[in-house]
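DM from R.C. (forwarded with permission)

"hey, sorry to bug you on a friday — could you get me a structure for this? deadline for the figure draft is monday and I only need the backbone to look sensible"
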Amino acid sequence: MNMRFLDACWGKPVDRTPVWLMRQAGRYLPEYRAIRSKCTFLELCKTPELAAEVSIQPVEILGVDAAIMFSDILTPVEPMGMKLDFVPGPVFENPIRSMKDVEKLRIPEMEQDVPYVLETIKILRRELAGKVPLIGFGGAPFTLACYMVEGKGSKDFAEIKRMMYGAPDVYAALMEKVTTMDMEYLNAQIKAGAQAIQIFDTWGGVLSPSDYASYVLPYTTRLINGLDRQNIPVIHFVKGSGSMLDTVKLAGGDVMGLDWHVNLGHARDIIGPQMAVQGNLDPTVLFAPKTFIESEVARVLAENAGRPGHIFNLGHGIMPSASPENAKFMVDCVHRLSQK
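My reply, with the result:
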């Protein structure tokens, strides 16, 4: 098996820098769109054979060093008692706004409530045997709570902040319940065979560093500390966290995901050598000519300066309109330019 990705997570030397892409199983691939055209997004997530098929596509097409299971971060929230739809973005019909709403939420029984996620992992472990490792994932408690309270994506996150500041008891009760659910969900993925876990905190960066420390860090720390992490590296990605890397580091984990707004070398100086990093090419670089893509790959690799514990990735998910040809070229550049 290609072990570069797992070795880099643990800070071990590798023959070349491993690379995978957030959202690598997605709409930019014609092969994905062909499958997606026959079912809804939720049907795809809940059909293990199809979810496994689209998870494998980028491994074969792009030559990446890890697969990530196809699902959505809100998958385990729906069985908590919240109706989820995609129109096309995620929407909850009845957002959480009161203590009564929080009390109604249940902690799912993962094997009964999200069996399709666990079956997808089992299929992928069989299909990927001897090829590349499999990454499982979930949303961080704060990002999940944002969707649950706002009801959908938001520009200002006024509702979640109103709850944080004005009804801290409701916020704390919600976060405790979501964190417990999240822990059980990710541990179920590990039990099913996930070889690494990525925690996506897409909206963690909408808070000030002090608010992040007060309202997010305790819950993410409890989540990471509660995972069955023996030989399972945990990647913690907080989008927009460049001004608070020292605080994000306190949550724990083995790898810190970096978005494209920070210099990777400077981030490593702050984080320290004991934690690996993942990132951090601007996703829009894939729209550029190949000469520019290659120069930007070289720049990110140069910022790392040959230090062990670097996984190359985009600074956020690959865009639906990105070129598969350019994505493959980027992967090839990483491997070629970093070869020892």
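R.C.: lifesaver. The mean pLDDT is 97.
me: no worries. The chain has one domain: 4-338.
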